Amino acid sequence: MLAVLFELLFLFSAGFLGGVLNSVAGGGSFITFPALLFVGVTPISANATNTFASCAGYLSGAYAFRDDLYAHKKELPKLIIISLIGGILGAWLLLQTPESLFREAIPWLLLFATVLFVFGGKINTLFRRLASHHQHASFFGYFLLFLMLLGVCVYGGFFNAGLGIIALSYLALAGHVNINAMNGMKLLISSAVSLIAIALFIYDGVIVWYEGIIVLAGTLVGGYVAVRISKRLSQKYVRVFVILVSCGITIYFFIDVFAN
To answer: What DSSP line would sit under 34-84, residue for residue?
Structure first.
């Protein structure tokens, strides 16, 4: 009984903290994904369940930016269609990956997501500069942007952590400069990728519902609380906390996977 109660409180707390981080600075998956692994969920199921638990935050965030999204309504169908295609491809690739191979990939995926989180701002600034020098992109340029967006969405369907950051990088390279519109489109991309991936995960039966719903409840409460306290929290210190946690978790998984 005590073990069950501990697991419930642990997963809810992880979801709560993840929801706060996602609302304030991003990086909630660095908490929720390892928490699911810690309670014994297998790696692929933990990844699929984490995508399920994160999706509600994407949807509510996209809805909050609906006015900014409306200003780009002509572009949205393309984003949604490519996101759905990439999301289902990424989810399908995940389900074809052997559990042992995905376990070995976890440290590298976490490292990639950590690097994105640490240097995401500089990467996006660089891409905005590149976009400003190429306002009149050729057909080849548009094709490369299409491939980049598809790659972003495939990654998101395969491994959810860091999706928002690389989605912002794509939007910066595509020439967007309005941060509110970019955040709205980022969340729309994340929502479409996650929803189609979740549909495939449900069909394949890899989501663990009990653990996932607890984490989901925690993220919703955490996101709500974060709105109330966000003005009191310094994004600088929250980012430092996420970076320290993500580096520590990445190092732990490198040791856990490769030191044995």
So the answer is: HHHHHTT--HHHHHHHHHHHHHHHHHHHHHHTHHHHHTTTTTHHHHHHHHH
Q: Which amino acid is at 80?
A: I
Any idea which residue has 């949205």 for tokens? 76
For 47-98, what is each residue's pLDDT tens digit? 999 999 988 888 887 888 888 888 888 889 999 999 999 999 999 999 999 9
Give me the mean pLDDT over the 232-250 stretch.
Answer: 78
pLDDT above 90 (res 171): no
In the three-class reduction of DSSP (H, G, I as helix; E, B as strand; rest coil), residue 170 is classed as: helix
Could you tell me if residue 46 is left (phi over 0), alpha (psi between -120 and 50 degrees) or otherwise beta? alpha
Give dist(CA 213, CA 197) in Å, integer: 17
Looking at the predicted structure, is the pLDDT value of residue 192 above 60? yes
* Residue 28 DSSP one-character state: T
Are residues 254 and 107 in contact, defined by beta-carbon separation less than 8 angstroms? yes
One-letter identity of residue 83: S
3-state secondary structure of 151: helix
| 33, 42 contact by CB (below 8 A) | no
What confidence tier does 139 reach under pLDDT thresholds 50, 70, 90? Answer: low
In the numeric block, which tokens belong to residue 213? Answer: 């719903």
Element (H, E) at 256: helix 235-258
> pLDDT digit string (tens) for 193-209?
999 999 999 999 999 99
Residue 40's region, left for phi above 0, alpha for psi from -120 to 50, else beta, is: left
DSSP tag of 230? G
Residues 6+ apart with CB under 8 A from 23: 57, 222, 223, 226, 227, 230
| Residue 26 backbone dihedrals phi, psi, to 5 degrees | 90, 170
